[in-house]
Write a structure and sequence with these properties.
Elements: H1 3-15, H2 22-37, H3 42-57, E1 62-63, E2 66-67, H4 70-73, H5 80-85
Antiparallel strand pairs: 1-2
Helix pairs in contact: 1-2, 2-3
């Protein structure tokens, strides 16, 4: 994922009247990448499903009265530009 991917997703969500943070966009895109590498990753699958539901409905799925912990279980995803800067 690149910085432009994150910006594009935030912009796309805004066009749907959805406000998402950099963290939420980064986590969704990173989870999608994880699923491509490991389709059996249940946490990444949950993050993608919940985010997709939010984009469609404008409401985050709730679990026992609060949002899912799933995005916080995944690692922090870095963009290609951030990874390049660490080299």
């Amino acid at each position: 994922m690149k910085n432009l991917d994150i910006e594009y997703l935030i912009h796309t969500a805004a066009n749907l009247d959805r406000k998402i943070s950099d963290f939420e966009a980064r986590t969704y895109l990173g989870a999608k990448e994880l699923l491509l590498k490991d389709p059996s990753n249940e946490i990444a699958e949950k993050v993608v499903a919940e985010f997709s539901q939010f984009l469609i409905t404008g409401v985050w799925p709730m679990h026992q009265g609060s949002r899912s912990f799933a995005p916080f279980v995944l690692p922090h995803f870095e963009t290609a530009e951030e990874l390049q800067a660490h080299r």
